Amino acid sequence: xxxxxxxxxLTGLCYAELASMIPIAGSAxxxxxxxxxxxxxxxxxxxxILEYAGSNMSVSVGFAAHVVDLLDWFGxxxxxxxxxxxxxxxGLQDLAGNNLYSPGWHFGFNIxxxxxxxFLTVILVRGIRxxxxxxxxxxxxxxxxxxxxxxxxIGFIRPANWHPFMPNGWSGVLTGxxxxxxxxxxxxxxxxxxxxxxNPQRDLPIGIIATLVVCTVLYVAVAVCLTGLVPWxxxxxxxxxxxxxxxxxxxxxxxxxxxxxxxxxxxxALMGMISSILVYQIGQSRVWFSMSRDGLLPKVFSxxxxxxxxxxxxxxxxxxxxxxxSGLFDIGTLADLSNIGTLFAFVLVSIGVIVLRxxxxxxxxxxxxxxxxxxxxxxVIFCFLLMAGLPIITWYRFLIWLVIGLFIxxxxxxxxxxxxxxxxxx
Length: 426
Description:
By secondary structure, this protein is mostly helical. 68% of the residues lie in helices and 2% in strands. The chain has a single domain (2-425), classed as Up-down Bundle (Amino acid/polyamine transporter I), CATH 1.20.1740.10.
């Protein structure tokens, strides 16, 4: 957590500077368009689609796992076929370790994951104000639930579970940091809605840095408590580790108070994941919108709904693109794709800060990264270091995604962008 927080702090400062200079919807896509040109902008935009989609798919699968736990709390046990992904690389076991499904594909579909994405897509189509108000309430409930969990379980922590402190050594720390990196992309999402801020030069840097600080403190607190409650091996592949740990402990002598804490944490986790999906879907639809406005995607993606004044088509497409894979794939596969997309985006944003320092040094900056080019350069180095910790299969999938994107760019986007006419007259 600390390693990831350090890398995110470096990158967050870079985001804050660029967001204060270029307060336009589109996040890293817009920043690279302004600094590194159209081709690199297309690559980062295509990458951001993968980043946000992968993140939301992962969160949606986690949401579905918590819905299952909530139903279990009330004594309801629906068929596993309709509440688990169709693809399970490690199979599926119950809390007692009994094998429900063998590794691989099985006939089924994660209905809760699909439904939550489509439901929130409808909310987003109706408008940013309604979405923001709903999101604020859910975030408040989530923070209360996290604090209740931290203070409620302190007496149940077993320090022996922290030994050895790094069971997989430094390589395990690097791999772990790479795997959970996608949980920190909140400050990226803040910058995608730049055009909807009242004072972006002031509000964006504050929002980005504050988001990073709050997330880091809460993540570390939950991680310390959770790893002290149960052995870390018991959480491998678990999409709902906190509530499942509470369930196990509540069945032990003296653990009955955790029965009710589990319900509070379940509700808080559900609210938190709903708010995350809302934010990530806003980010994804705004990237589609920005790329379409620049001519890199068909104009229909930048059409605004006549009544709700939102990019309705982009929002619907983003919803479908996320909802269907959420019903098919497991959380680990989806998280890895989001991680490599996120880290690659962070690399290009950090490079963009360095480029703009030399290309446009006199441009007004509401926030300036201290230390000259040192911090952006360190951000690039550490992001590549974390990318190296991801599985090789994730790299293959990422490269295939980029190749598909380049085909689309050279066959379609390059000839229809706002710079196409300029190139044709040269």
